[in-house]
């Protein structure tokens, strides 16, 4: 019974993710694309919950929805006249691009179904994953963790450098 | 239990849609959104493999780093888009040809 509910949730949200991603890519209006991206990010967060990654689901909602999406919306609103008609976004080379990505999709699905995945069973985690992930960050992955923090600082400084006015030079 | 392949197929569809957006959209911000779709599809793969293959959290740690990279990428890329807008007063990528020989 619980299994059936899990399956229904997975397929409903898989449909939501694919449909909203298609709207992001194919929709004519940039603001509609940004809001469709919201649905995609939430759907991916639901996948993380189904996969037992509760910390990642929270981080996905906080960082993607609360940070990146807001940043993208700022970008949309700063680079377009909102009350004008130029929020339409156009495509170039649509049919060649569609052919390439359809070929990539067919290849990927073929590889996924022809690979004999070595199932080691469905790992069962007890309780929240946050403590284990935090311990791994402070223990085994301390160097990548510090490198990521330096990268974030560099991105902060670099973004501020790029957007400042040229007369400040 | 959802089989591993179904997660991978959803992720492959998401990747292809993102690739389509990167290849065909003119607007720089729409291309950025498509890149975020590709990041998310990679993340679904990492978390699914982590869940189905081992009992430690390496895949989830990798996914956290991907989210960090995505955040800094979005910040720097939007800075570039904004300064492009200041120069060209639009963000159509096919018109940004100043470096063309």
Secondary-structure blueprint of this entry?
The complex is a heterodimer of chains A (169) and B (101).
Chain A: H1 2-26, H2 30-50, H3 54-78, H4 94-114, H5 130-138, H6 142-163
Chain B: H1 4-24, H2 28-53, H3 58-88
Walkthrough of the structure:
The complex is a heterodimer of chains A (169) and B (101). With 169 residues, chain A is mainly alpha-helical. Chain A has two domains: 1-101, NADH-ubiquinone/plastoquinone oxidoreductase chain 6, subunit NuoJ (Four Helix Bundle (Hemerythrin (Met), subunit A), Up-down Bundle), CATH 1.20.120.1200; 127-169, no CATH class. Chain A has helices spanning 2-26, 30-50, 54-78, 94-114, 130-138, 142-163. Chain A is globular, with a radius of gyration of 21 Å. The model of chain A has no long low-confidence stretch (mean pLDDT 87). Chain B has a single domain, classed as Helix Hairpins (Orthogonal Bundle), CATH 1.10.287. In chain B, α1 packs antiparallel against α2 and α2 (28-53) packs antiparallel against α3 (58-88). Chain B is elongated and about 50 Å long. Chain B starts with a helix and ends in a 13-residue tail after the last helix. The mean pLDDT of chain B is 90. Chains A and B meet through α1, α2, α3, α4 and α5 of A and α1, α2 and α3 of B.
How is the quaternary structure best described?
heterodimer
Rg for CA atoms of chain A: 21 Å
- Stretches of chain A where pLDDT is under 50 for at least 5 consecutive residues are none
Largest β sheet strand count, sense and barrel closure of chain A: none
Quick one: which chains have the greatest interface?
A: A-B, 84 and 72 residues
Strand content of chain B: under 5%
Total helices of chain B: the number is 3
Which descriptor suits the 3D outline of chain A?
Answer: globular
**Record field, number of beta strands of chain B:** 0
How confident overall, as mean pLDDT of chain A?
87
CATH superfamily of the largest domain in chain A, by name, is NADH-ubiquinone/plastoquinone oxidoreductase chain 6, subunit NuoJ
- Rg of chain B computed from alpha carbons, rounded to a whole number of angstroms: 17 Å
Order of helices and strands of chain B: HHH
CATH architecture of the largest domain in chain A: Up-down Bundle
